[in-house]
Write a structure and sequence with these properties.
Layout: H1 2-12, H2 16-87
Helix pairs in contact: 1-2
Length: 88
């Protein structure tokens, strides 16, 4: 749920022309991800039990954290650059 509210906040900050697409993409990812995640999780549990499920989940979560840090850092530096160029 924390990721959903963060993604919605970021999506509402897009330019007016891109805002609708961004909001649609966030909503689709949230709803579609729940269904796809459940299907994949069920198969992982059936194939290898909860150890495989939580092991896979922890690796995927670690990869997501690394990706988020990279993306947020890039977006933050771009935002700072835009703000400083407007101030001049």
């Amino acid at each position: 749920m924390l990721a959903h509210s963060t993604l919605l906040t970021i999506a509402t900050e897009f330019a007016a022309k891109a805002r609708g697409m961004a909001m649609s993409l966030v909503a689709f990812a949230f709803m579609g991800g729940g269904g796809i995640g459940t299907a994949i999780g069920g198969r992982l549990i059936s194939a290898g039990g909860f150890t495989l499920f939580y092991g896979t989940y922890s690796l995927a979560l670690a990869a997501l954290v690394v990706l988020a840090v990279i993306v947020v850092r890039d977006v933050s530096s771009e935002h700072e650059r835009l703000v400083s160029s407007r101030a001049e």
